[in-house]
Design a protein that fits this description.
Bound molecules: pyridoxal-5'-phosphate
CATH class of the largest domain: Alpha Beta
Domain Alanine racemase C-terminal: 254-382
Largest sheet: 10 strands, mixed
GO biological process, one term: D-alanine biosynthetic process
Function: Catalyzes the interconversion of L-alanine and D-alanine. May also act on other amino acids.
Number of helices: 11
Low-confidence stretches: none
Pfam families: Ala_racemase_C (PF00842), Ala_racemase_N (PF01168)
Protein name: Alanine racemase
CATH architecture of the largest domain: Alpha-Beta Barrel
Length: 383
């Protein structure tokens, strides 16, 4: 209602994926569900309750605003971990609500101690170590200061975790770099432990590290993309297949993006279709007009390139994708009616449109396309 397209989120697909992930990590390792980027485009409000039904009790986000949304959405108690942005004003709110957070600068550590003192409540910190990604994290010299401060503030703050993030575990090209990061991490961790500190949770793995490098599992894994049914990269999938005897992809996608046929039009041979002259009808054609365009995240780059599904059949986008509509070729399809379902992403009958087929294959495409799906397209949970 009131929307030209909508997104369905499959609960059974999530159950399947969580079961697969749990089997991979074993029962002793905690699974933190990464729901940054609006749960990778799936919608925090739709995704989180079904994840909780699947037994997830730990969520990781990027920033305080996401943590805030998550907190409103939880249906039962769960741990929330902020991995990135949190300004000093938000720190007080986070600590007051038992939200855990990464610490990668002395400033945040000291501020957390001050606020904890004021609130009479211990902040739970995850010390992020620099191991080679060169983004955030304490390198060895700054770690010395952090440990000294932790020692000094141990009445106010608790060292809940020690963690790092790998710089591209989804590509074998980075194999040596990932292994070096893992070594350096273990090294720094034992230094932290010999300094008398004992973190409760040690964690380093994202999806790609979890599936390709089991030694990175430790106490907890932070899983984003795979819970939504996507492999971090084609390489990760082929690596997994080479190590296992499986016949089909063990993951299932949660997301289906749908619209409807808004109008049908006949176009005589030789006419140009849409703006400009990028498509000229090579024969008499039947078109379906679909009320989705680049304003809804359907990229203009898919002009004359993309496909949608109508009546279980692939239909090509012809002409340029407009702001709010696109035209698709239904000349070969029998009996298409106004209001017939159009699948932009996902399956219909035996056909499917994958995220990868949305454009040229690049390793980050899944992540980017999913997180760019506009937040104002309604999302519905289905079985
Ligand atoms: C996004 C993110 C993850 C999850 O990555 P996936 O590849 O989606 O599993 C884990 N850790 C950190 C620090 C992240 O930023």
């Amino acid at each position: 209602m009131f929307h030209s397209s909508y997104i369905e989120i499959s609960k059974s697909a999530l159950q399947n994926n969580i079961a697969f992930l749990r089997q991979e990590i074993g029962s002793g390792v905690q699974l933190s569900s990464v729901v940054k980027g609006n749960a990778y485009g799936h919608g925090i409000e739709q995704f989180v309750p079904i994840a909780q039904e699947c037994g997830i009790s730990h969520f990781s986000v990027f920033s305080a605003d996401e943590a805030h949304r998550l907190l409103q959405t939880l249906t039962k108690p769960a741990t929330i971990l902020i991995m990135g942005y949190l300004d000093n004003e938000e720190l007080e709110w986070a600590i007051a609500h038992d939200i855990e957070f990464f610490v990668f600068e002395l400033d945040r550590l000291l501020e957390a101690a001050t606020i904890s003192e004021k609130l009479g409540k211990k902040a739970k910190l995850h010390l992020e170590l620099e191991t080679g990604m060169n983004r955030t994290g304490f390198d060895r010299p700054s770690l010395e200061h952090a440990l000294a401060s932790l020692e000094k503030c141990k009445a106010q703050v608790e060292l809940q975790g020690v963690c790092t993030h790998y710089a591209g575990a989804e590509s074998l090209q980075n194999h040596d770099r990932v292994l070096a990061q893992h070594e350096l991490f273990k090294n720094q961790l034992s230094y932290i432990r010999t300094s008398g500190l004992s973190p409760k949770q040690v964690h380093t793995a994202c999806s790609a590290a979890m599936i390709t490098y089991p030694e990175t599992h430790m106490d907890m894994v932070r899983i984003g993309i795979m819970q939504y049914g996507f492999w971090p990269s084609p390489e990760t999938y082929s690596h997994y297949v080479s190590q296992h005897t499986i016949k089909k992809d063990p993951l299932r996608r949660l997301i289906t993006w749908k619209s409807r046929v808004m109008s049908i039009k006949s176009v005589p041979q030789g006419e140009f279709i849409g703006y400009g002259t990028s498509f000229q009808a090579p024969r008499d054609m039947q078109l379906a007009i679909v009320p989705v365009g680049y304003a809804w995240g359907y990229s203009r780059a898919l002009s004359n390139q993309g496909h949608v599904l109508i009546k279980g059949t692939r239909a090509a986008v012809v002409g340029t994708v407009n702001m709010n509509v696109m035209m698709v070729d239904i000349t070969e399809l029998q009996d298409v009616q106004k209001n017939d379902e159009v699948v932009l992403l996902g399956s219909q009958g035996n056909e499917s449109i994958t995220v990868a087929s949305f454009g040229e294959l690049s390793t980050q495409l899944n992540y980017e396309l999913l997180t760019r799906l506009p937040a104002n397209i309604p999302r519905y949970v289905i079985d």
